[in-house]
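Colleagues,

For the teaching module next term, I've prepared a clean inverse folding example: a structure given as tokens, and then the sequence designed for it. I'd like students to try predicting residues themselves before seeing the answer, so please don't circulate the second half yet.
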């Protein structure tokens, strides 16, 4: 039996402080949500394995601090990234040259009546920047989080630079406990 090919993809999550970057990641990787807010200091990352077609993909998802005082640390974390997730409010410089995805998080709050950015505005913004994929998400309810990150993995995998990033992790069991077998992407 042939072992599936492996790839390691670095994904960075950007957005202002308090938009729910850490909550989205915790919902996706651990299926957990906490009401308690704790600001991310600097940056942190989590990993999740997914299977896309015949390839086993390890997503290394970097959570960056939204506070302005930590923005000088940003460039070091962007280096080597395969994809970037924008969770309101970041502004891509050149979306055609790099895969960007927009998450509109916290759609569960007040039934959407207290929204600052409407779905229509977000979709128009994405369309005006080269049809950036857009997902309305709720880290609290787990709504659309899995689908959004699956799209992240597929876009990052499709946008891999010409060189192959296939890797093999010697000593790690070939049995993967949380491998996702999914197909299709709304991207």
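(Answer key — instructors only)
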């Amino acid at each position: 039996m042939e072992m599936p090919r492996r790839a390691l993809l670095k994904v960075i999550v950007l957005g202002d402080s308090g938009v729910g970057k850490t909550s989205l990641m915790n919902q996706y990787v651990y299926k957990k949500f906490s009401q308690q807010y704790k600001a991310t200091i600097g940056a942190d990352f989590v990993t999740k394995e997914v299977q896309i077609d015949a390839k086993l993909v390890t997503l290394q998802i970097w959570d960056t601090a939204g506070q302005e005082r930590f923005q000088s640390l940003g460039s070091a974390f962007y280096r080597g990234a395969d994809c970037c997730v924008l969770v309101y409010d970041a502004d891509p410089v050149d979306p055609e040259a790099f895969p960007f995805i927009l998450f509109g998080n916290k759609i569960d709050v007040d039934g959407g009546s207290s929204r600052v950015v409407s779905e229509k505005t977000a979709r128009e913004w994405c369309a005006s920047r080269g049809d950036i994929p857009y997902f309305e998400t709720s880290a609290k309810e787990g709504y659309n989080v899995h689908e959004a990150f699956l799209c992240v993995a597929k876009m990052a995998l499709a946008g891999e630079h010409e060189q192959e990033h296939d890797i093999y992790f010697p000593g790690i069991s070939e049995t993967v406990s949380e491998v996702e077998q999914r197909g299709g992407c709304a991207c």
